[in-house]
Each structure stands twice: as structure tokens, then as C-alpha cells.
Amino acid sequence: EEDDHQELSQESKEFLLTLPRNKGWRTRNLYLFQGFWCQAKEIHAILSFQQHFQAQAKDIIVASIPKTGTTWLKALTFSIVNRHLFTLQKEHPLLTSNPHDLVPFLEYNLYANNNIPGPSRPRLMATHVPFHALPDSIKMESNTSRVVYISRNPFDTFLSIWHFMSKIRPDELGPFSFEEAFDMYCNGVVGYGPYWEHMLGYYKESMKNPEKVLFLKYEELKDNIEFHLKRLAEFLGCPFSAEEEREGVIEDVAKLCSFENLKELDVNKNGKCIANFENKHLFRTAKVGDWMNHFTPLMVEQLSTIMEQKLEGSGLAF
Ligand code: A3P
């Protein structure tokens, strides 16, 4: 408990006591705050983000729940938006910086450190916060900021979180089994979850307001990256020209941001980003359907039933 609360003010500690609490995945506890589960130290930063962030025209926000392809989408968005500033083949910032350093999280790198996003245009930022809890200025229809969301099949997402967590969970928190983690996941208890609510929040907004939110699926990007890069560039207001298409710029973006390319870069093998995480943990297998080798039939049935029930009637399926 102490570890989770060490750096918090007395007021924040007292506030935490009022929130529903559950065992955490890589911290002692998770707290149910504004309808989603998060760590004690994230709450203050999220409140600050909600209170102070002023969306501006052309802002771009990459949104996701952890382990659904955030790193990839950050790399793709950064490369597309800045393709006239940096050549894609050499001396590109992605060759020496991790995508998380180029597209900072609003609730970690920025508002957790009283670091207000700067004036560069377009501002490129990221968040794991669910749609309903984003600051009002982003959600206002009159505001022309854009939100790009990436979702992923909930089975592979679970597996990815599980592997990531098992690498970074501090030993002193004690054992945490695959089965226990799965039960928590099925109960919605996972950072920024329940996952179905997270994806539904962004999905519904993308249906209601397609100019504001673009909803992407990891599997579809894997299946046809060039088609989705065109969609993404159009949505972001910087479509590829016929000349760029002819010159292979779309393929160049895809190649630069590919798992195979990023994983082998020195910065991603040996570097660190967000809160001193080793970048290498962000790149595991990037496979679609790997869950089939890890789930018992009972687990498959359990999570499939939950997802079907939760997504029923929404038009969203995996
Ligand atoms: P796996 O654990 O299944 O391999 P996030 O970036 O949201 O943390 O998601 C991490 C997942 O995305 C990991 O999945 C990781 O391997 C995969 N990933 C990272 N970079 C990628 C890229 N450039 N292309 C495709 N997948 C990538």
C-alpha cells in the first residue's frame, strides 16, 4: 500500500480511501475512478489533464487501452503527419527515438509532470483515458482536434498485457497467476478498463462523429496496412498525393514503422522511455491469433460470452 501512495498528498490519499479498490497487476492496487480502473498515481495527472487541457484546432490525439498497438499507431501517426519534415529513409526521428518519446502521453509525460503541451502544430499527443473522461474541449463538436483510436482483439490484448506485466511486475507484489489475471480481466479490472467499455466509448463516438474519431483495429492494420494508412492520412487532413503514392511513400511509412524494423533498432533494444520502462518490452511477437495457443476452451468460452454480451447491438465485433 505504502508503495502506491508514497508520493501523494494527504488530500489525494484521503480521496483514494473513498474509491472502490482491487488488487493491481503491477501496482499493489487499482482504483475505480470515474468508471475506469487506474493506479493511484495516475489519478492526479488525469484530473490535471481534465481540468487544464485546452484542445486546439489540428491537435491529434492517439488513444488506446494498453497493449492494443499504441506504440505502432504513434509511430504511424508521427511519420504521416511529419513526412514533409523528415525523410522516411534516413535520419528519421523514429530511428533514434522510441515512438512514446515522440508522441507523449497526456496523463504520463505531460500532466503528471506539470508539462503542458507546447505550441508546435499539429500537436501530437496520446492518452489511455476512456472517451467519456476526456476533457470537454476535445469532445466539443466545434473543436477540430482529431482522435485516432486503436483496438485489438481482446484475447491477444490479454496475452500481451499478461506478458508485459510479468516482465515489469515488482517481485515484492508476490505471485500473480495467468488464471487470476484472466478472471480480473473478465471482471473488467485492468488498467483503464473494463476494456469493452473503453472500446465502445470510442467506437460509438466514431459512428456518431466520424470527423472527430477514427476507430482502427490492430488486425485490420496488419491485414492491409497501406489501405489503412491512406484512411489515416485522409482523416488527419494530410492525404497522400497521387505522386506520393507513385513514389512509394505509403510503403515507406509502413516499412519504417513495421514491428520488424522498430524492434531491431538500438533505441528499442537498449533504450528506456516512459517511467524508465525498457523499450524492448514494448516489442514482443506482434502476432494475430497467438491467443489460440494459450487459452483453455473454458477461457475462450468465458471471454467470448462476455464480449458478445457487452458488444451486443453495437455493431462492433472481433
Ligand atoms: P504482443 O505482446 O502481442 O507482441 P502497445 O504498443 O499498446 O503497448 O501494444 C503492444 C503490442 O503491440 C505488443 O503485442 C507488441 O509486440 C506490438 N507491437 C509493437 N510495435 C509494433 C509494430 N510496429 N507493429 C505491430 N505491432 C507492434
Automatic annotation (TrEMBL):
Pfam family, one: Sulfotransfer_1
InterPro entries for the chain: P-loop_NTPase (IPR027417), Sulfotransferase_dom (IPR000863)
Enzyme class: transferase
Enzyme Commission code(s) on record: 2.8.2.-
Protein's UniProt name: Sulfotransferase
Keywords on record: Transferase
Transmembrane segments: none
Domain Sulfotransferase as annotated: residue spans: 58-315
